[in-house]
Amino acid sequence: MNNFPVVLLTIVITVLGIAIDGYNCKMVQFIFGDSLSDVGNNKYLSKSLAQASLPWYGIDFGNGLPNGRFSNGRTVADIIGDSMGLPRPPAFLDPSLTEDIIMENGVNYASGGGGILNETGSYFIQRLSLYKQIELFRGTKELIKSRVGPEEAEKFFQGARYVVALGSNDFINNYLMPVYSDSWTYNDESFITYLTETLEAQLKLLHSLGARQLMVFGLGPMGCIPLQRVLSSSGDCQDRANKLAHSFNQASTKILQDLSAKLPNASYRFGDAYDVVDDVISNPYKYGFNNSDAPCCSFYNIRPALTCIPASSLCGDRSKYVFWDEYHPSDKANELIANELIKKFGFTRAGQPNNAPSPAPAHAIAPSPDQEDY
Ligand SMILES: *[C@@H]1O[C@H](CO)[C@@H](O)[C@H](O)[C@H]1NC(C)=O
Ligand SMILES: *[C@@H]1O[C@H](CO)[C@@H](O)[C@H](O)[C@H]1NC(C)=O
Ligand SMILES: *[C@@H]1O[C@H](CO)[C@@H](O)[C@H](O)[C@H]1NC(C)=O
């Protein structure tokens, strides 16, 4: 019973803490993205064709079962959030999500197949585009507001960290695919303008909803993903797709600089890992990889394999492959990308001093989305 007084003291301090400060808001993240950041939303979009719900997705994560991530392991956002000491936000569509969980961990709205543009990825039938994700975030904010009051809610949302990581699908599953009307409505230049102006409007909208500390992850050399290479007879990277990614990154850098200067109290930053990934693809051995052009998970010699399934065969050493499947980097490559972004953003570890429990009881707020809308 020796530590009884210590326990009592801790309780007294905790209770006082609540009485004095009201809610001690934890720093959390809100993540908006596509399959590169999805942690399970698409699992709940039953008609979506963009799924990571079968083995061998997740084989190097936790218990090794599929968890909704489109990789064998962690996403770039997982790794960056970990390095900042922030909790990993759960998927918005996870039915066990509660207000308490949101206030402790934030929310991840990322959805495989989603894009900056509403029309992107329609081929996947269901996905959450960025506008939809922001609409869902607005709902989350209303919910927290009704729980803790407008002032505390504003503090909580302004103190949070925001990640926006979309854009590849706007090219790979829209502009570069002749089945989409954007591919014949625009040229390279006018499409980049349309896309980045849409992104700018969305970032302003997020600011109006409280986002102050926000980072946008740019695009890598998407013309070098295995799916793009297999489309060319030579197996080389698709130059046009790479140039588009580069132009998108340049235009976005400028937009983020302008927004950061213009929007009150905003620190909006853009970072991409284009150059380092480009170098990894040309010189995999230099970085400890052994393959930078084929997916680790593949259906024997049938390419493109499109997705990784239980009947697929895996490469011998997953940490030696840059790509996990036709579209997505492996855990090891994500680590390299994350480290490059951390360097560019110049992060230091965020403190988590306040851990006061929320006094009100939790009640589930499992969203029951009208799935036809996605
Ligand atoms: C995009 O979709 C959102 C709903 O998710 C809608 O509110 C918005 O008007 C749409 N924008 C365009 C340009 O179609
Ligand atoms: C900017 O920050 C100051 C100081 O924290 C605050 O008083 C003000 O309301 C903020 N403005 C906006 C638009 O967030
Ligand atoms: C790399 O791949 C080559 C052939 O693809 C193989 O002979 C070699 O053993 C591999 N090295 C490692 C370290 O996996």
Automatic annotation (TrEMBL):
Pfam families: Lipase_GDSL. It comes from the Eukaryota. Residues 1-19 form the signal peptide. GO terms for biological process: lipid catabolic process. Residues 353-374 have a biased composition (Low complexity). InterPro entries: GDSL (IPR001087), GDSL_Est/Lipase (IPR051058), SGNH_hydro_sf (IPR036514), SGNH_plant_lipase-like (IPR035669). Gene3D superfamilies: SGNH hydrolase. The keyword Lipid metabolism applies. Keywords: Hydrolase, Lipid degradation, Lipid metabolism, Signal. GO terms for molecular function: hydrolase activity, acting on ester bonds. Residues 352-374 are annotated as: Disordered. Belongs to the 'GDSL' lipolytic enzyme family. This is GDSL esterase/lipase. It comes from Carya illinoinensis.
